Amino acid sequence: MKILPLEESISLKRTIDQGTEEQRIAVQAILADVRANQDSAVLRYTKQFDGVELTDMRVTDAEINEADKRVTDETKEIIREAIANIKDFHERQVQQSWMTTKPDGTILGQKVTPLDAVGVYVPGGRAAYPSSIMMNVIPALVAGVERIVMVSPPQKDGGLDDTVLVTAKELGVKEIYKVGGAQAVAALAYGTEQIAPVDKITGPGNIFVALAKQHVYGTVDIDMIAGPSEIVVLADQTGRADYIAADLLSQAEHDPMSSAILVTTNQKLAEAVSKEVDKQLETLPKREIASEAIEKHSCIYVAATLHDAVKATNELAPEHLELHVEEPWVVLSQIRHAGAIFLGEMSSEPVGDYFAGPNHVLPTNGTARFSSPLNVEDFTKKSSIISYSKQAIKEHGHKISSFARLENLEAHARAIDLRLKEDE
């Protein structure tokens, strides 16, 4: 890895892949086709892109039960324990509706209501991501969403991965469709004969899925348009080179565009980590992907002081931040921008990916400056409650009508004046 002195300003921001003009045109055509031709279009694209000819997209109970038989009890127990941890964490995020009253009889409040229906996109095909199901479904369940629809691209045999189906079963998700790509997003947003539309779509996917989500936003809500994965490790002289290198590579193996950065106050540690990264890369199965990420989008910065290192870390606003420092809880108070913060050398980033409980759907590309991990609140909406009494209108009505006239909205003012006259 490159070792550089810390500059005054560093950034993780990279241009999020907006796709080629050809890809954008293709996605728009798919969305329009599915909107017009519904199931027939979805099935046609599934055959074209996934090489699978289906007559029915919905996963049957029999398929789920067969998958359940093939998954070991040990795997199921791991899945159940991870679900319990994630559920426990998200239950602490639940917001309650509230009301407040004033002496003049005014009642004000906020009503929290779960969304009616949510679609969860789960990447599939050549890989399986049961953790993605947990992180998207559990906060929706905790929020009280009644209808959760899962879509995932079929494998070559026309089915879905066993662990994916077992995870969905453990979570109680029963509406599952073997469909992926832009056509799945279109089906969730617009609806088809078989798939009723939803109110929000969450979950990661390839560039065609991302472009489709961008296009349907407004018809439905979406979670985010995420960039490549990122990790920043902030370390002082107490950091262990082998741990840090392993954690940097845990993100570098995701994607050639992934970014893995070490910000340290110790030159010797910087040199040791650089050597350890090269050593660990030699035996990494995804060496080619990780090597490109390390070479093109990763670096080690050496800061003069811990204060400078923390400042740089806040400028980076990373998706994942690990604190390998002598007093991580002290440094934590100085961190303002990060999606997830891992304290101490035992808190490796994969702990958060799979098991600890916090959500691993995190803001990327510096958006941790103003956004948060996927959470229960993302699956609710809030309504303001306003109840004014005659006494309140009598006391404040003239102020309201005067304000309306400041904005030249006479009908607004007259709506209040009418009530004031009745009270004279």
* Uncertain spans: none
- The overall average pLDDT, rounded, is 95
Q: Could you give the count of β-strands?
A: 14
**Share in β-strands:** 15-25%
Query: What is the C-level CATH assignment of the largest domain?
Result: Alpha Beta
State the share of residues found in helices, binned by percent. 40-55%
Structural class: alpha/beta
CATH architecture of the largest domain: 3-Layer(aba) Sandwich
Strand arrangement in the largest pleated sheet:
1-11-10-9-12-13
Multimerization state: single chain
- The CATH superfamily label of the largest domain reads Nitrogenase molybdenum iron protein domain
User: What would the principal axes of the Cα set say about the shape?
Assistant: globular
End-to-end Cα distance: 79 Å
Rg calculated over all Cα atoms: 26 Å
Treating each run of at least 4 consecutive H or I residues as one helix, how many helices?
16
Cofactor: Zn(2+)
Binding site for Zn(2+): 251, 254, 353, 412
Function: Catalyzes the sequential NAD-dependent oxidations of L-histidinol to L-histidinaldehyde and then to L-histidine.
Family: Belongs to the histidinol dehydrogenase family.
